[in-house]
């Protein structure tokens, strides 16, 4: 086994955006071989393997069916090329990242792209 370190950033909690992102660092003991998993008695049971694979296959089928239904209904995925509001939101994000306030970023994005916010 080996100790693996990783970190992360929490930007939303309990359904709300945090005032400031919170960072964390942690570690865990990772298995390096199947023998280590066996020794720790943590191998998956046959039923767990079947359940896991079936969940993967169901998720894959669900995604394909959803995409087919959206395609059949004529719902097009928004891209920067086909959605003005998406372009505005991306530009807004850039202005906010550069230190602008919410209102300043909205106004600057609209002016820079010569577009109007829908909301």
Strand content: 15-25%
Helix-strand pattern:
EEHHHH
Distance between the termini: 53 Å
In quaternary terms, these chains amount to single chain
Strand order of the largest sheet: 1-2
Q: Tell me about the biggest sheet?
A: 2 strands, antiparallel
| Overall pLDDT score | 95
| Global structural class | alpha+beta
- Gyration radius (Cα, Å) is 23 Å
Structure description:
Helices cover 50% and strands 23% of the residues. Helix 3 packs across helix 4. The longest helix is centred in the middle third of the chain and has 27 residues. The radius of gyration is 23 Å and the shape is flat. It folds into 3 domains: 42 residues, no CATH class; 32 residues; 43 residues. It starts with a strand and ends in a 6-residue tail after the last helix. It is built from 4 helices and 2 strands. By secondary structure, the chain is of the alpha+beta class. The protein has a two-stranded antiparallel ribbon with strand order 1-2.
């Amino acid at each position: 086994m080996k100790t693996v370190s990783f970190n992360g950033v929490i930007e939303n909690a309990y359904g709300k955006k945090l005032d400031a992102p919170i960072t964390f660092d942690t570690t865990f003991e990772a298995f390096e071989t199947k023998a280590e998993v066996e020794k720790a008695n943590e191998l998956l049971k046959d039923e767990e393997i079947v359940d896991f694979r079936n969940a993967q296959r169901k998720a894959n089928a669900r995604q394909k069916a959803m995409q087919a239904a959206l395609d059949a209904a004529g719902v097009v995925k928004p891209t920067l090329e086909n959605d003005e509001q998406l372009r505005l939101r991306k530009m807004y994000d850039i202005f906010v990242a550069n230190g602008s306030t919410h209102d300043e970023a909205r106004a600057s994005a609209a002016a820079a792209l010569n577009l109007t916010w829908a909301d």
